[in-house]
């Protein structure tokens, strides 16, 4: 794959004494992320630290994306911890990837803890953030939490989309909360998200 070619290129650069910098490392981490190669992405972050190459938000976001694609929630949380230690800013994209990793790893509690941390740190919540949190709750059978997040979206003026509604309806359906599911379907229909009839 392409990530293997990128790592081979980094090895060639090292052999030829060409300086490896943040830009080349970030490109390599991004290539690994696109293929879900979280271990290689992690190794590259470690390499950057060993070589005293300054990491930035892009370095961490790419590594988090690799963890997210693979459902590696513990590694995603470790990366967030490393970012906090290095005082690297946690932005929306960063936190979204971590919440999505928790969702894919069936860790709804961790997803909600991250959501709460984002709110406390005044990190902007967006549709992706809340969709991932609702989906994590849905997977964990936590329909009440899913509905609280859903109703909070309207109050926070965050755009509700088909993914949002589908995850919330699924959460209600799992716990036989048919009246809540029907209410959500009505909301979807009035918003033009599902055809009537």
Summary keywords:
single chain, 197 residues, mainly alpha, 11 helices, 0% strand
Tell me what you see in this structure.
- There is one protein chain.
- The chain has 197 residues and is an all-alpha fold.
- It is built from eleven helices and no strands.
- Helix 5 runs antiparallel to helix 6 (92-104), helix 8 packs antiparallel against helix 9 (143-155) and helix 8 (127-139) packs parallel to helix 10.
- The longest helix is centred in the first third of the chain and has 14 residues, at 2-15.
- It is elongated, with a radius of gyration of 20 Å.
- The mean pLDDT is 82.
Question: Helices and strands in order, then pairings?
Answer:
Elements (H helix, E strand, L loop, with lengths): L1 H14 L6 H13 L3 H13 L6 H14 L2 H13 L6 H13 L3 H13 L6 H13 L3 H13 L6 H13 L3 H13 L7
Helix pairs in contact: 1-2, 2-3, 2-4, 3-4, 4-5, 4-6, 5-6, 6-7, 6-8, 7-8, 8-9, 8-10, 9-10, 10-11
């Amino acid at each position: 794959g392409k990530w293997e070619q990128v790592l081979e290129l980094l090895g060639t650069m090292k052999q030829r004494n060409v300086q490896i910098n943040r830009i080349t490392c970030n490109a390599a981490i991004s290539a690994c992320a696109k293929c879900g190669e979280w271990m290689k992405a992690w190794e590259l972050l470690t390499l950057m630290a060993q070589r005293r190459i300054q990491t930035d938000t892009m370095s961490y976001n790419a590594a988090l994306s690799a963890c997210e694609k693979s459902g590696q929630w513990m590694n995603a949380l470790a990366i967030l911890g490393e970012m906090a230690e290095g005082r690297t800013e946690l932005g929306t994209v960063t936190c979204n990837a971590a919440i999505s990793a928790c969702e894919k790893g069936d860790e709804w509690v961790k997803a909600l803890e991250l959501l709460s941390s984002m709110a406390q740190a005044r990190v902007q919540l967006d549709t992706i953030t809340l969709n991932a949190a609702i989906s994590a709750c849905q997977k964990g059978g936590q329909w009440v939490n899913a509905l609280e997040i859903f109703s909070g979206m309207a109050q926070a003026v965050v755009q509700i989309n088909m993914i949002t509604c589908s995850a919330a309806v699924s959460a209600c359906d799992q716990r036989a909360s048919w009246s809540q599911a029907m209410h959500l379907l009505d909301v979807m229909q009035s918003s033009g998200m599902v055809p009537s009839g």
